[in-house]
Amino acid sequence: MSLVLSQIYLYPVKSLGGIQVQAWELDAFGLRLDRRWMVVTPEGRFMTQREFPQMAKIQPRIDACGSLRLRHPELGELEVPAADPTRPRQLVTVWQDAVAAIPVGAEADAWLSRAIGAPCRLVWFPDDGERQVDTRYARAGERTAFTDGFPLLLLSQSSLDDLNRRLARPVTVRCFRPNLVVEGALPYAEDGWREIAIGGKRMRVVKPCSRCAITTVDPETGKFSGKEPLATLATYRKRDQKIYFGQNLIHQDQGALRVGDRVEVR
User: Which of 85, 158, 176, 177 is 20 to 30 A from residue 224's alpha carbon, by CA?
Assistant: First the structure.
């Protein structure tokens, strides 16, 4: 069976809901508009579902012009204004990285503060932003926006199927927040990949993805659902006190990806 790209997801706002698409473009940062917005505390520290699982209930939508809308079950919809590049930039932190981001505006801040139930701000990663990917795995000049650390995250459907066979209650791919889902490989074959091409776009497989409590957040309810799937993954995917599932990628080419694209392992 040949390997194909079966699903594509982007997450415009870090730690909010994801969007499934049939085709999307790769730009310098990864999937276009993926993690270009981020919710931060008033002091500028990134906020995620690890501490605020209710963020999962906020669903983004991107229109044809690239504008962002957010929808919350109780608050309705917010049209997010484009970030003004002339505004003074705010230093924000993502893990150990400091980034000069552009504040979006008071209306978005107030809406998100109500939706999340904690004071926060919405910021934009500018086109000229510089966040170098960890040079232990990346080349100089390879950038990412507000991801946890790498431009792309790949998951194998067969690996997820293998995990679900071990679980009393299967989980969906949404719990793992991948960008790219591949079908046709043996379970965990991706652990041995080093270079692949998807639709002819070259990518390096640079690091397995270590997993955290976000995988235990129910994407529908925005609540922690228990210890699974982490507890089961820990029985067979734990190494050096970390649990690994999926692979981080760095792309070498830009251009369109489409569901159904052939995946080549080089």
Answer: 158
